[in-house]
Amino acid sequence: MTEPARPQPLDPSELGFERIVYEKTPPRATITLNRPEVLNAFDFQMLRELARACEDVSWDDELRVVVLTGAGRAFCVGADLKSRSEEYLGNPGEYWKWFGAFKDAHDRLREIGKPTLARINGIAVGGGNELQMACDLAVMVDDAFVRHVGPEHGSVPAGGATQWLPIMVGDRRAREIVLMCEQIPARRAEEWGLVNWVVPAAELDAKVDEVVESLARKLPQTTRYAKQHLNFWRDLAWHQTINHARDWLALSMATEEPRKAIERFLERE
Questions:
Q1: What is the largest CA-CA distance in the chain?
Q2: Distance CA 169, CA 262 (A)
Q3: Could you say which DSSP state residue 201 is in?
Q4: Dist. CA 228–CA 124, nearest whole Å
Q5: pLDDT digits (tens, 9 = 90+) for 211-233
Q6: CA 106 to CA 104: how far, in whole Å?
Q7: In the beta sheet, which residues pair with residue 123?
């Protein structure tokens, strides 16, 4: 594939995505994580496709708002542990490369220059919750939950959770979410400020439409700069820690703790 000569957006059909569905219905773009058979767990390819879709959105002046959602019954359950077990356990160098794709997808999403709305249609676990936190706003169905499981699976949730949960929900609640690894029901997530709105599944799309229509009416240049300022604390926490996390997590792939934890998880599946 040749690189574009200038920042020109493409029709989604030209991009050939396999792990996500990318749709443009101006002023809205919708990115759907599309691996429902594994609850939209992300692998290297999905992360690369997400980053490319976000880049294309940022180039398309007809698009004012981005909706991120999942196919099927889950929003996203984070990293694909089967893929991690096969390709990265015991191989720190390869995991370091994988984490680079994770970081790039987050940066592209967070720095897209347009309002982003997480349409949380089901559970958001681990890196799935980190993806919804990377969005500006979030609507969640009332029968879903948020959960972090890193300390049970041998992975520190330092791809957004340790950086942003203290900002969003406060220090003690952040520690509860990360260290206890318990489900946070949708209503509690709303009460704590982890999501903006919780609605019944039958009302999810109507609420998303309402928020998108409101955001699309705002001035794009002013909105982009307002978002840049609002991102200050998130960006500060992210950029001060993410490359350290990348190196530490990569080295941890050579140790027994994550290997045994992931093996136990896959045996239960």
A1: 53
A2: 29
A3: G
A4: 25
A5: 999 999 999 999 999 999 999 99
A6: 5
A7: 74
Q: Which fold has domain 12-202+220-268?
A: 2-enoyl-CoA Hydratase; Chain A, domain 1 (3.90.226)
pTM of the complete model beyond 0.70: yes
Task: Write phi, then psi, for 168 (nearest 5 degrees).
Answer: -85, -40
Q: Report the alpha-carbon distance of residue 217 to residue 201 in Å, rounded.
A: 26
Residue carrying structure tokens 């999403």:
109
79-83 contact pairs (CB < 8 A, 24+): 79/41, 79/42, 79/43, 79/126, 79/127, 79/155, 80/35, 80/38, 80/41, 80/42, 80/43, 81/41, 81/153, 81/262, 81/265, 81/266, 82/38, 82/266, 82/269, 83/41, 83/43, 83/44
Cα 229 to chain centroid, rounded: 20
**Terminal Cα-to-Cα distance of the chain (whole angstroms):** 38
Q: Where are the domains of the chain?
A: 12-202+220-268
- Residue owning tokens 């089967």: 82
227 in Cβ contact with 115 (< 8 Å): yes
pLDDT of 269 above 80: no
Copy the structure tokens of residue 193: 């400020």
Question: Rounded to an integer, what distance in angstroms lies between the CA atom of residue 201 and that of residue 203?
Answer: 5
